[in-house]
Amino acid sequence: MKYVPQALTSFNTQGFVKLVADKETDYLIGAHIIGFNAGEIIQTASLIISFGKKYGVSLIDISTEFFPYLVQVEAIKLAILALDKDVEKLSCCAN
């Protein structure tokens, strides 16, 4: 959570997002979220898991979608991008 802009602005960066993806399909198959508002963030992860199975929505598809700025759920998009990029260089507010 230390790279999530909303967490930085609220001085509440404790916690993490861990995503589990299927290498063959690039679908999200699991998520662990610990921290402030984890219950709200996990809802987005569960929708991504469901849509991957039902509609063939991959993590690449999700990573190109718009995520609202300055909300905790942005942690999901940053975690997806971190699968193959350095998030520290992506986030506007990272140290």
TrEMBL record:
<feature type="domain" description="Pyridine nucleotide-disulphide oxidoreductase dimerisation">
    <location>
        <begin position="4"/>
        <end position="78"/>
    </location>
</feature>
<protein>
    <recommendedName>
        <fullName>Pyridine nucleotide-disulphide oxidoreductase dimerisation domain-containing protein</fullName>
    </recommendedName>
</protein>
<dbReference type="InterPro" id="IPR004099">
    <property type="entry name" value="Pyr_nucl-diS_OxRdtase_dimer"/>
</dbReference>
<dbReference type="Pfam" id="PF02852">
    <property type="entry name" value="Pyr_redox_dim"/>
</dbReference>
<dbReference type="InterPro" id="IPR016156">
    <property type="entry name" value="FAD/NAD-linked_Rdtase_dimer_sf"/>
</dbReference>
